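Translate sequence into structure tokens.
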Amino acid sequence: MSEGYAYLPHRLLHRRVRDIPSGVEGVLMAVVNEDVSDCAGYERWVELAYVRDASGREFTTAVGNVEAVEWAD
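Result follows.
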């Protein structure tokens, strides 16, 4: 793969999720397989979830850290 990232499909895309470690809730905007290699000479790829919180800021977390939550009425 020549790019440093690739978008991945996910069943929770554009749905409300919670980042389990922080408890922050938001909308899952994207899931990306991203090259986080350093200069050590080997590739390291991780799957990151991009979540947009209520303030509009996006943060990343491991895909395994997100869980679906229901919208509050």
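Note: The mean pLDDT is 90.
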